[in-house]
């Protein structure tokens, strides 16, 4: 029974139980189109969650990544429209660079002024959102104005199946992008010096410093990577829904943080894994999407999400309870 | 001569020999002068200051609630949701046909039902705060996550109660709390002064306050010193819940309506003002006077910017920039 001592196994077990419960209430859950759309909803949130995971392992917290995502996607798409440029590669690089610089801004403030990451990122989130909406405006770039190649990129399907009612449903190829990023982050965390230093820093910053780890480099790496992933996820989201809305992702930070905590990461730092996070994201997205399938009134959604956050954190708190204070 | 020596001592006591307070007074004055110069004539009008005394209190009370949570190194991200839920619950009570009918008759029944409504709102705030406190002190959930979760739950319940649209049609007595005048000064302003004084005394003159500061300074030492830590933390979140409910009453009284997503920008502002007011988010430090001064400074700032027709989005950005600036200044000051 050693397998049940790993956090991932426990979460996976919970996930499977919940899946069967939802399937019992409404068998439509197991339909191919539902499963495909579920996979699709995982991509953007999942990539963001991987960034948040890095920050949580380092013992920090970030509530500015939705703002960073929006800044990256909106600035990129608006410039593409203004310049009449169409393409895929360059815009994604631009979005990543924007995300990374904003992440670096967080890192500078956190590292230089030794301030609690929550307060810092609350501030930067407000600055970023305010500037984007205030300087660039609030208009949505619609499908008819969106760069065509970007839409084509987001449209690609991995496989498509003809459903019983004759409609074809496809599994978006973006799932591959998500999986690839997850593998890279996993390998980085497990087998590289910088990856191990994130765990060391999150476990005990002072010990990490004394062990000779360049903690400043670790902090910059963590926040820049999280920013980069947020920027990438933002533009990916935009190419998948065929529009660029500067008001997107409001309140998403709560969901993503909840998913990462659900996946077994400790907010005190030093704990967390890519696999766990992915399962956590899947669970949260699945529950949110299935509330409608289960005929739960939409007004109850927030209550359910809140209860999930509390339950997930209560379980992790129980796990970490050995501390006196 | 004696009055001269007593004066600095009194001043010193009020200021608490606190460099942060002196710094805040300077910041407030600088902003005040700047806004007066930039908006020649309009800023220094009676109407402007009168409207500030109506707008400030609800945010100010939320800031004090936030500060109380920060004293022990925590944070309360659910204050705005509690405020809305409390106001909406009272609104649902007033909507009850029997209540509405007896209130329509006016007179004593009107006042009695208003008092009942206030009590209901305060009870909701207390219950919500106690739930936060139990999750944080007994189940040992870290405050950020606990209040993030409960904030969703309270906001969600508010949504369930209203079904989406705003609740309107509060009784006139309720509106008086938010828009009325008492002795020529706005009622909400009086309420803020009373709340601030009570909390200030509570924090500086009672066991609860001293214990909270100790827990925030060194939680481990506080436990070894025999302080009933978890009970004190429970009380502090209950108090912050009740204050949030008072803010909710003022907000719904002023706007004559309540909605599940009202005042969502208040959350960041409350954190900002609490930190700006010299509260240490890591715990152990915080004063009501500092928070009130910071509130004044930022109210001047945003009211002045609004007069200059700066867009609300840019004002949000300015608030965020201000928060980062304050963090930097606090760091540089403490590094000396």
TrEMBL record, chain A:
The chain crosses the membrane at residues 9-29, 63-83, 89-109, 116-141, 167-189, 219-237, 249-268, 300-318. Its main location: membrane. Coiled coil: none annotated. InterPro entries: ABC_transp_permease. Keywords: Cell inner membrane, Cell membrane, Membrane, Transmembrane, Transmembrane helix, Transport. It is a multi-pass membrane protein. It holds the Pfam family BPD_transp_2. It is found in: Cell membrane. This is ABC transporter permease. It comes from Paracoccus onchidii.
UniProtKB/TrEMBL annotation, chain B:
It is found in: Cell membrane. The keyword Transport applies. The keyword Cell inner membrane applies. Pfam families: BPD_transp_2. It comes from the Bacteria. Keywords: Cell inner membrane, Cell membrane, Membrane, Transmembrane, Transmembrane helix, Transport. The chain crosses the membrane at residues 20-38, 59-88, 108-132, 144-170, 182-203, 232-251, 263-281, 288-307, 313-332. It is a multi-pass membrane protein. PANTHER family: ABC TRANSPORTER PERMEASE PROTEIN YPHD-RELATED (PTHR32196:SF21), ABC TRANSPORTER PERMEASE PROTEIN YPHD-RELATED-RELATED (PTHR32196). This is ABC transporter permease. It comes from Paracoccus onchidii.
């Amino acid at each position: 029974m050693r397998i049940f001592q790993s956090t991932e196994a426990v979460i996976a077990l919970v996930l499977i139980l919940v899946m069967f419960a939802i399937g019992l209430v409404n068998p439509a859950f197991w339909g191919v189109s539902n499963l495909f759309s579920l996979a699709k909803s995982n991509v953007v949130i999942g990539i963001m969650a991987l960034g948040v995971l890095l920050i949580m392992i380092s013992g920090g917290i970030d509530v500015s990544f939705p703002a960073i995502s929006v800044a990256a996607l909106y600035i990129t798409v608006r410039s593409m429209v203004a310049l009449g440029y169409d393409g895929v590669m360059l815009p994604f690089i631009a979005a990543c660079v924007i995300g990374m610089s904003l992440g670096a801004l967080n890192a500078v403030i956190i590292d230089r002024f030794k301030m609690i990451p929550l307060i810092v990122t609350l501030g930067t989130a407000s600055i970023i959102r305010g500037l984007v909406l205030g300087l660039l405006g609030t208009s949505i770039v619609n499908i008819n104005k969106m760069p065509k190649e970007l839409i084509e990129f987001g449209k690609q399907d991995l496989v498509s199946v003809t459903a019983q009612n004759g409609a074809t449903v496809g599994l978006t190829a973006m799932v591959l992008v998500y999986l690839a990023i997850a593998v890279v982050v996993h390998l980085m965390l497990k087998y590289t010096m910088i990856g191990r230093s994130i765990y060391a820093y999150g476990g005990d910053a002072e010990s990490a410093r004394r062990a000779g780890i360049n903690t400043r480099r670790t902090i910059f790496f963590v926040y820049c990577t999280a920013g980069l992933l947020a920027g990438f996820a933002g533009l990916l989201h935009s190419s998948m829904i065929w529009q660029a809305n500067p008001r997107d992702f409001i309140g998403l930070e709560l969901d993503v943080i909840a998913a990462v905590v659900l996946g077994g990461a400790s907010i005190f730092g030093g704990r967390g894994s890519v696999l766990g996070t992915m399962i956590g994201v899947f669970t949260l997205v699945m529950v949110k999407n299935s509330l409608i399938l289960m005929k739960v009134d939409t007004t109850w959604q927030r209550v359910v999400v809140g209860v999930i956050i509390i339950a997930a954190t209560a379980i992790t708190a129980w796990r970490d309870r050995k501390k006196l204070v | 001569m004696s009055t001269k020596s007593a004066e600095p001592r009194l001043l010193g006591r009020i200021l608490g020999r606190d460099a942060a307070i002196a710094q805040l007074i300077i910041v407030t004055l600088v902003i005040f002068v700047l806004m007066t110069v930039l908006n020649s004539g309009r800023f220094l009008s009676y109407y402007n200051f009168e409207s500030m005394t109506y707008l400030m209190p609800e945010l100010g009370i939320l800031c004090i609630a936030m500060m109380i949570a920060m004293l022990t190194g925590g944070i309360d991200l659910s204050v705005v949701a509690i405020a809305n839920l409390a106001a909406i619950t009272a609104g649902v009570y007033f909507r009850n046909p029997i209540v509405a009918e007896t209130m329509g008759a006016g007179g004593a029944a009107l006042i009695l039902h208003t008092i009942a409504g206030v009590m209901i709102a305060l009870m909701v705030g207390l219950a919500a705060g106690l739930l936060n406190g139990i999750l944080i002190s007994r189940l040992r959930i870290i405050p950020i996550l606990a209040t993030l979760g409960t904030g969703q739950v309270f906001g969600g319940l508010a949504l369930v109660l209203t079904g989406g649209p705003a609740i309107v049609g509060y009784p006139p007595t309720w509106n008086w709390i938010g828009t009325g005048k008492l002795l020529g000064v706005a009622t909400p302003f009086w309420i803020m002064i009373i709340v601030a004084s009570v909390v200030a005394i509570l924090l500086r003159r009672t066991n609860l306050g001293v214990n909270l500061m100790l827990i925030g300074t060194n939680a481990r030492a506080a436990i070894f010193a025999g302080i009933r830590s978890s009970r004190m933390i429970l009380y502090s979140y209950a108090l912050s819940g009740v204050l949030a409910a008072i803010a909710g009453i003022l907000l719904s009284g002023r706007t004559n309506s309540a909605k599940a997503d009202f005042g969502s920008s208040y959350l960041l502002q409350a954190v900002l003002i609490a930190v700006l007011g010299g509260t240490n988010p890591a715990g152990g430090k915080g004063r009501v006077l500092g928070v009130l001064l910071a509130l004044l400074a930022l109210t001047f700032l945003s009211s002045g910017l609004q007069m200059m027709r700066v867009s609300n989005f840019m004002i949000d950005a300015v608030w965020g920039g201000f928060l980062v600036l304050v963090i930097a200044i606090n760091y540089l000051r403490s590094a000396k």
